[in-house]
Amino acid sequence: MTFQYSYNSPVGKWLGFVAAVWVQAISGNNYTFSNYSDALKSLMALTQLQLNNLSVAKDVGKAFGILAGLASDRLSTPVILLIGSIEGFIGYGVQWLVVSGTIKPLPYWVMCIFLCMGGNSTTWMNTAILVTCIRNFRKNRGPVTGILKGYVGLSTAIFTDICSALFASDPSTFLLLLAVVPFAVCLTAIVFLREIPPSSTPAEEKEEVKYFGVINVIAVIIAVYLLVFDISGTHGKVFSQIFAAILLILLASPLFIPVHLMVKNFIRSNSENFDVEGNENEFVEPLLVKKEVVVVKEENAAEMEKRVPVIGEDHTIFEAMRTLDFWILFVSFLCGVGTGLAVMNNLGQMGLALGYTDVSIFVSLTSIWGFFGRILSGSVSEYFIKKAAMPRPIWNAASQIVMAVGYILMAMAMPGSLYIGSIVVGICYGVRLAVTVPTASELFGLKYYGLIYNVLILNLPLGSFLFSGLLAGLLYDAEATKTAGGGNTCVGAHCYRLVFIVMSIACIVGFGLDILLTIRTKNLYAKIYANRKTKKSTTAVLS
Description:
mainly alpha
């Protein structure tokens, strides 16, 4: 007897999910620009404005994620992953060639194109991963999204810490890692990640929850491990190498789940007596009922195609955009992630304005607590849907009001308020990302989810432009004083006070929209709860 598995088995499904986790753990390269931006600036003799525009070109790549969404409804998961991996390999590979001195610096507009390609590559990876995993584990969408988005939050720290531990933060080597590692990991995911039928019994669903809990624990251990390494100061070469080795082992440890399932199946196949004729409790669906159902489906097929879908059914992007619920979700998402991005993009200037010379701790706090917000909110929101039919958007509403309070504290500029604000923003930003993704799939279905997801995340570049580029930039310049070199600077609590007040108002608006969506979707989540409860009762009777 040999160890075997098929792609459609639980072993195959969990191998695919582990591969998806690995892809997400290396797909946060959009957030690593600061690790090599100085090298680009010096090699290409750029001004700060030109360097900032290179960063904008990287973020513009996310706006083209709509292409990945369109492709997700037409191409298979392996093809989408392959496109993203090749695009990232080319985009970051060319940047490595420039920074390493292998080729001469390219024209500015050409570099913008390759940075845009690098930024866009992750939209293909994320679309393939999220759409496929939510379809495979559709009864545990919250934990799936929380785990995957949580690893995206950790990916920046994973890349940065491994590079600094092994290669002394060399920007050339860092870019080489960005080009090669995601490409290799995506090729691995191409082998294992497929769309597989979801769990069909409460026992299978319960087993999934148990395994998601294991992966959650592993993710928390990795987050704490990275945080301790970051705040423990400088390290020697040997210590850094040991750190990197242990980190890689921790990243590989979710493989325990499919290996455990494979061993369990192997033992079961040797011990069970497969006597299907003697199984008196086997439930056989009456053929008459089955035929009647088929006839009814055929008769109503044309009518179903013409009918406008209701919330909870599959929507095309155009059908979704004709509903009020879509725009409530869209605008509330903008209020949350837009203001959160404004803080993350301006933490450096905010810290300097308040007299802090080292602002890296605020970046770390936002990143680590953002991870906890993502990974916990997915599981908690799923638990309360199953136990109390609580609509998932209520958690978005809670995050919005907490974020508004955080901005008010930051506007008051009391001692330690920036520490508190960084933690609050990190948690609430993580909650918004982890909760909105499964909410959209529950409201508008999974058939066209890839495109719907990518339209929603247009809020990332849009929110960054509105709240960071316009609001924070214009109001900061209005408070700043000009310097001799032609720039400007601002020191004091007044520099960002009005920015925080406006963003707190935006969050209150988002809170109201999320409460409205909670009320409007109450019946939908009641149906989801009732369907799950009925299925459990039916299974208990038949068993």
